[in-house]
Amino acid sequence: MDTTLSSSTTDAQLVSAYIEGSEKALKQLIDKHQQRIFNFILSKIHDREISEDIFQETFFKVINTLKKGHYNEEGKFLPWVMRIAHNLVIDFFRKNNRIPLFENTDEFDIFQFIGDGAVNAEEALIEEQINEDIQRLILELPEDQREVLMMRIYRDMSFKEIAENTGVSINTALGRMRYAVINLRKLIESNQITLLVDNRQ
Questions:
Q1: Residue 3 lies in a domain
Q2: Which of 18, 22, 146, 200 could form a disulfide with 26 if both were Cys (CB 3.0 to 4.6 A apart)?
Q3: For residue range 73-90, what is the model confidence (pLDDT) as tens digits?
Q4: Boundary-marking domain end, from 41, 70, 95
Q5: Which of 63-67, 105-109, 112-116, 127-131 has the lowest mean pLDDT?
Q6: What is the number of domains present in the chain?
Q7: Is the separation of the CB atoms in 11 and 29 below 8 Å?
Q8: What is the 3-state secondary structure (H, E, C) of the chain?
Q9: What are phi and psi of 76, to 5 degrees?
Q10: Looking at the domain assignment, is residue 64 inside a domain?
Q11: In the predicted model, what is the mean pLDDT of residues 165-183?
Q12: What is the domain extent for residue 69?
């Protein structure tokens, strides 16, 4: 079945059209969102070939879910696909025993070790080395603490979401996060990793 499609057709309409048999609708959905989804994956993986594989796997899961009639996101197609991509990225890091590079947040200024906005080549090398050291240290954390830390920083999940995903109370999730940060700071100190390069005069 081919439904009349246009650039103004909503995601919900495209999903419905695909479920009813329109392959054009699926192609339009992919064309519409592929750049944003792929860029997101690439920003975490930093490897184009692996990112392309994860992008393909993302849409395999999307297609399988739609075909089985399990999609019930009420029109919120892109956030749903982004969550699938998110989970596949996390799976990749778990399988490869790697920890993703963290983005700076106010809560975790422990990782903001460059003093000003102008990062020269030497500082960039220092930053890369520190990130590698921190990734290694995070692997030394107890599994429950490491899991909460990754969910909070890397996946930007709320503590309510973390609690639901790990099957514990919000207070327990908060406690694990607090101990993860305390233990990570101890590991950083005991390994004599300097996190702050202050270039100000």
A1: no
A2: 18
A3: 665 888 888 888 888 887
A4: 95
A5: 112-116
A6: 2
A7: yes
A8: CCCCCCCCCCHHHHHHHHHCCCHHHHHHHHHHHHHHHHHHHHHHHCCHHHHHHHHHHHHHHHHHHHHCCCCCCCCCHHHHHHHHHHHHHHHHHHHCCCCCCCCCCCCCHHHCCECCCCCCHHHHHHHHHHHHHHHHHHCCCCHHHHHHHHHHHHCCCCHHHHHHHHCCCHHHHHHHHHHHHHHHHHHHHHCCCCCCECCCC
A9: -90, 65
A10: yes
A11: 88
A12: 11-95
Q: Which range is least confidently modeled, 29-33, 90-94, 118-122?
A: 118-122
- Do 147 and 185 reside in the same domain of the chain? yes
Q: Are residues 87 and 123 in the same domain?
A: no
The whole model's pTM is what?
A: 0.50
Tell me the one-letter amino acid at 169: S
Query: Quick one: pLDDT at residue 53?
Result: 92
Q: What is the pLDDT of residue 128?
A: 59
Q: What is the mean pLDDT of the chain?
A: 76
118, 89: one domain:
no
